[in-house]
Amino acid sequence: MCPITLIQSNNTEALYKYKGDHYLILYRETGINQKIMSRIFKQLESMQEIYSRVSVTFLQFHLKKWSPENKVMSAFLKSFKKILKREYNCKARYIWVREQNGAPAQHYHMAILLSGHKCDNSYNIHKLADTLWRSQNVFGYAYPVENAHYMVHRNKKDEFKAAIYRLAYLAKNYSKVFDKDINRFGVGRL
Questions:
Q1: How far apart, in whole angstroms, are the C-alpha atoms of residue 133 and residue 72?
Q2: Contact (CB, 8 A) for 190 and 110
Q3: 24 exposed, middle or buried (CB, 10 Å; 0-12, 13-18, 19+)?
Q4: Could you tell me if residue 162 is left (phi over 0), alpha (psi between -120 and 50 degrees) or otherwise beta?
Q5: What's the per-residue H, E or C state across 16-32?
Q6: More confident residue, 12 or 160
Q7: Residue 71, C-beta contacts closer than 8 angstroms, at least 6 positions apart
Q8: Rounded to 5 degrees, what angle do the CA atoms 129, 133, 139 make?
């Protein structure tokens, strides 16, 4: 595992050290989950080993009713995998986190990583995800995300750092449910 340290620079941003480089990230007093941060780097790096351009799209899903598990996310990912394969026919990675902050139910943030050669914007992914989420969760909705798409070219450090800045939001401890019986995040391949 790579040495990772956090250096607070101001109230809302910090420098995060990974493999000898410093990355500016969004930061809160409650800190970040280093395990999630490490997985974020690994997911993006693994896609860059396969593709010279990686498309990163952010999604957000809400439920109206609380659930003690993440079955809804598992079911969504199972179906979404088939849809993405049909639409893009490329390797894909995902990162999701479960959060709850004052609302009666949890919500999920997700990043989908695809070949930038096959996907050059977030419109279709949002449309596909929203349609699927609503069909599976009659009492839920997908929330439109600002700054939802990043294109990361291999060897373009500034683009990699911009994507990490945005992806680090998923690693914040704030609003995460800390219950040993509830999984707070997931990563994998689609």
A1: 9
A2: no
A3: middle
A4: alpha
A5: EEECCEEEEEECCCCCE
A6: 160
A7: none
A8: 150
Distance CA 178, CA 176 (A): 6
Q: What is the pTM for the complete model shown?
A: 0.89
Q: What is the pLDDT of residue 178?
A: 59
Q: What is the pLDDT of residues 40-75, one digit of tens each?
A: 999 999 999 999 999 999 999 988 788 888 888 999
Residue found under tokens 């599976």? 136
Residues 90-112, buried b or exposed e (16+ Cβ, 10 A)? bbbbbbbbbbeeeeeebbbbbbb
Token pair, residue 150, equals 């990043």
- CA–CA separation, 33 and 27 (whole Å): 11
Compute the CA torsion angle 176, 179, 181, 187 (nearest 10 deg): 20
State the residue for tokens 């995300």: 145
Question: Cα–Cα distance between 76 and 106 in angstroms, integer?
Answer: 15
What is the residue type of 172? K
Estimate the crossing angle of helix 71-88 against helix 123-136, to 10 degrees: 140
